């Protein structure tokens, strides 16, 4: 497909500046954050310290994310419009559903992720520089402002920064993996079944599901490429490829990284670290294989990873709000593109304002918990939208179709539904808040709808 500009209804225009590697960098850049160094402890704890079951959960998390990505590849190539999930939910169900997702992203999941990452970056220096909570929040606000301003100067600059940060964090992560696999002298027990053989399969599958949810925290972000599809080169080919290669590559890295941990650290040491509250197993591995330089390497890698993840979300999320405004039920200024830099500037600025507000009123733990559940419902609805698209729009061009349809789509939907139920049982307060925010968005949609009809 020839590169071309897409004329926007408000007089601006999108530019196709993102290639295949750029698409993979957006996905991988958002997915691979600081969690690679500590989430392994949480997954391991939830599997009752079974290394084999833990690796299984990391693999399952990647497979689930990849299945979801295949669904998004079909939806994205069928409706190649800026806005991603907002567009698919609009067309599959009703515009109010897409609006509820976009509103949730603006006030909670998208802006909340930016806030959480902005707080996490200076928090990494807290022990070194003795930073107070006030100073940490001030630095977080400055980071949000700086990255937002940078991305106001065009998608090309944002994508270039994403490519650089992706490469910069992959090099040390891969170096740690290779060094650990070569120098590690442990022989981890990778059996996924308890040694005594007394297995209650209902409890076992519940345990695996609970641990897999923890791994999915690390995989979160694979939905964020679709919103920028109008800015991708040859999206019919590059969107599916970027999703498959991006998610697949991240899965490989996560599984190998956690296996490398087990090759270097003894079971006893891992157990002692987790019991003492030190969850950063990846950091300890870097110290073991690289000495004091390992601590510096991990800190730099974590900062780059969080920075890249934050930049990717700042790029992707405003396209949701752009789509909401273009549909007619949000502030018109959100649907305007800058005449020179071709980005939704107003949406970018308001996203930053809300993210800053969240930094000032919420803690890092609160933000992280709220963000996790809020996306599950809409991921499930988008996966089910594949069925609706095929039935509702049989003549719609589908350059890419999900492998193994309908079995793969049914399986993916059931998995996400099960994870939602499991999360609701384990953390009902967060789940309820995650449902209330979209309902508020629905009310605001109705208000705009009445004004529009008048």
From TrEMBL:
Domain of life: Bacteria
Protein's UniProt keywords contain Transmembrane helix: yes
Predominant location category: membrane
Annotated localization: Membrane
Coiled coil: none
Pfam families hit by this protein: AA_permease_2
Keyword terms of this UniProt record: Membrane, Transmembrane, Transmembrane helix
Residues that span the membrane, as ranges: 20-39, 51-75, 96-122, 134-154, 166-184, 242-262, 293-321, 341-361, 367-390, 402-425, 431-448
Topology of this chain in the membrane: Multi-pass membrane protein
PANTHER family, per database record: AMINO ACID TRANSPORTER (PTHR11785), SOBREMESA, ISOFORM B (PTHR11785:SF512)
Protein name in UniProt: APA family basic amino acid/polyamine antiporter
Lineage per the UniProt record: Bacteria, Bacillati, Bacillota, Tissierellia, Tissierellales
């Amino acid at each position: 497909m020839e590169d071309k500009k897409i004329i926007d209804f408000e007089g601006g225009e999108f530019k196709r500046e993102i290639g295949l590697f750029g698409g993979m960098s957006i996905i991988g850049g958002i997915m691979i954050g600081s969690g690679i160094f500590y989430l392994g402890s949480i997954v391991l704890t939830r599997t009752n310290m079974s290394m084999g079951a833990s690796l299984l959960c990391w693999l399952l998390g990647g497979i689930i994310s990849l299945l979801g990505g295949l669904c998004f590849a079909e939806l994205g190539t069928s409706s190649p419009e800026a806005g991603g999930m907002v567009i698919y939910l609009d067309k599959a169900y009703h515009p109010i559903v897409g609006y509820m997702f976009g509103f949730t992203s603006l006030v909670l999941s998208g802006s909340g992720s930016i806030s959480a990452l902005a707080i996490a970056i200076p928090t990494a220096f807290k022990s070194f520089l003795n930073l107070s909570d006030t100073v940490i929040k001030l630095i977080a606000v400055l980071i949000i402002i700086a990255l937002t301003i940078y991305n106001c100067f065009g998608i090309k600059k944002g994508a270039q920064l994403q490519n650089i940060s992706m490469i910069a964090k992959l090099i040390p992560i891969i170096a740690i993996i290779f060094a650990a696999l070569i120098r590690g002298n442990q022989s981890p027990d990778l059996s996924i079944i308890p040694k005594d053989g007394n297995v209650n399969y209902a409890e076992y599958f519940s345990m695996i599901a609970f641990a897999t949810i923890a791994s999915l925290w690390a995989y979160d972000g694979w939905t964020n490429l679709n919103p920028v599809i109008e800015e991708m080169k040859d999206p019919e080919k590059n969107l599916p490829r970027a999703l498959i290669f991006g998610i697949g590559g991240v899965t490989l890295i996560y599984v190998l990284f956690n296996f490398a941990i087990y090759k270097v650290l003894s079971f006893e040491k891992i157990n002692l670290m987790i019991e003492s509250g030190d969850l950063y197993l990846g950091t300890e591995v870097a110290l073991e294989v690289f000495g004091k330089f390992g601590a510096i390497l991990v800190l730099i890698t974590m900062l780059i990873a969080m920075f890249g993840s934050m930049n990717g979300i700042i790029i992707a999320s405003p396209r949701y709000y752009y789509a909401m405004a273009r549909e007619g039920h949000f502030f018109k200024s959100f649907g305007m593109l800058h005449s020179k830099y071709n980005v939704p500037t107003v949406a970018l600025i308001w996203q930053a304002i809300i993210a800053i507000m969240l930094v000032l009123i919420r803690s890092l733990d609160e933000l992280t918990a709220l963000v996790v559940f809020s996306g599950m419902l809409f991921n499930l609805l988008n996966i089910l939208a594949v069925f609706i698209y095929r039935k509702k729009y049989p003549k719609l061009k589908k350059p890419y179709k999900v492998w193994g349809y309908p079995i793969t789509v049914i399986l993916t939907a059931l998995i996400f539904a099960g994870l939602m139920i499991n999360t609701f049982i384990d953390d009902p307060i967060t789940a309820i808040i995650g449902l209330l925010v979209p309902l508020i968005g629905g009310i605001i949609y109705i208000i705009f709808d009445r004004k529009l009809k008048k």
